[in-house]
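User: Show me a protein chain along with its predicted structure.
Assistant: Here is one chain, sequence first, then structure tokens.
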Amino acid sequence: MNVPRREDTPGRRPMDHVDGNALAGPLSELFAVDITAATGRCVNCGLTGPIAELRVYDRAPGMVARCPECGHVLLRFVRTPDSAWIDLTGTVSLRVRLPDTDEEGRG
């Protein structure tokens, strides 16, 4: 099924967004690796690509990251003074490359 891109949908005005790199700072508090380099897969259209390529809407209390192909919400992130909330419901999988370790560093 070919789903129209959100900005191509008649009667819709494109929203201002930034790319997925905007998630780097907030998510670095939670992940030891650069999560924007991770590969995610959209539950709606199946597009697979780096988190850095998502369209992030950050003009709200939290951040919403949408698929660049179909506009489906892949990730929601909200930070409060004592908690961080991550919703990955729209993501089928998230692949994070681990740093190389030498033989001596392996347990």
